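Q: Convert this sequence to structure tokens.
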Amino acid sequence: MSNTQGLPEADAKTKEQRRHAVIGSSVGTIIEWYDFTLYGLASALVFAPLFFPGAGNLAGMLGAFAAFAVGFGARPIGGLIFAHYGDRVGRKMTLLVTLMMMGVATTFIGLLPTAESIGVWAPILLIVLRIFQGAGAGAEFAGAMTMASESSDPQRRAYTAGFPGASVYIGMALATTTFALLTLLPDEQFLSWGWRVPFIASAVIVAFALYFRLRVTETAAFEEAEKDGAVMNSPLAGAIKNHWRVLICGMALFTFTLPWVYIVQTFSVSYVTGTLTVNPTAALVALIVAELLTIPATLYFGKLADRIGRKPVLLGAAVFGIVLSFPLFWLYGTENILLVGVGLVLGLAIIQGATIGVSAALLAEIFPTNARWSGIAISREIPAAAVGGTAPLVATALVATSGGSPWLVGAYLMGLSIIGLIGIAFLPETLPSKVDADTLDPIMVADVEPVS
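A:
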């Protein structure tokens, strides 16, 4: 029996399920990074005077970035807890819970009274909500990548995984655009109510994402694992016991990629508008351009990785990170908005575009179905807590230590990029045409054909 397009019914159903899985995973990623970007921008621009007043400019900014970093401390906890359930009871239901947790926490941040109204309770409640936001987000991206990878055509897996990856920058651009428009308000209005609007609007985006995610079916890979009795009682322990070498290399990979995104996305805005004299609205517009360019770049690098392999693309990104570490701050130091924009584009579109989807495809192909979400979560969220969320805080402290000079930050980024390069070098290549299918998860490669 065929559908109207001449496809066998089973093939048409598979294509529809793949499309729903990609959309469902992508919209959740949009809300995750919309939420996290909002918090990062607010940390750079408004949280210091509103929630940490009376501490002085530097201390207030350090307090705001410390609260930003707290969310990353919660990421591995939430990520590992939800990864356990994602590998035990299924991808779909777990991802619905993480979506709601993030959205509710972000909306409530927009409703919080400031320190002027409730004193010390303001930063305390801000941090509590940040913890819930971080716990949900810690599981969301690993789960989205797991679902997208399991639902993809093996010959286009890096490209397909690029859609949730590209959605990161849709969420970022949406949040940054909203914030940039609101900075056009008079300062008094922006600080009193303007900054709250995008946080409260998160509720609308969550409802939109929830609609699509409810239409997603459980992945065939997980259903097959359940049918075969392959689901483990302790997938986290299984991932650590059986795949510890890959986990170490994966953590090294994300030790490189995650600080780059938060240095460029969050710290750079604070640095060029605070330490330097770039106009805040112009800086945000430049950041929006960089985020928008990262969307096609992510899909392009995914296609490239499906042709030449995962490792060459990832290794190239790490080498580029080493090379860019110091020139990035030379570009910022010109205080020319066009050159500042070039730095932002290079840091996001090239480094993040080449890594975010490709790394997901590689790890999904290494870890078996019964430990896939857990393996990706461990690889990603532990570095997210250790060096990702703390990157803006560390960078701010390094600039203060060096009397306003950014060169210690450049050295910091170079060191992390070298760690990533080493980790990537020890990961296996997983492009199906370059490996023996028997070495990979049979559920993932059952329909693999050589790629020309």
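Confidence is low (pLDDT under 50) at residues 1-10, 440-452.
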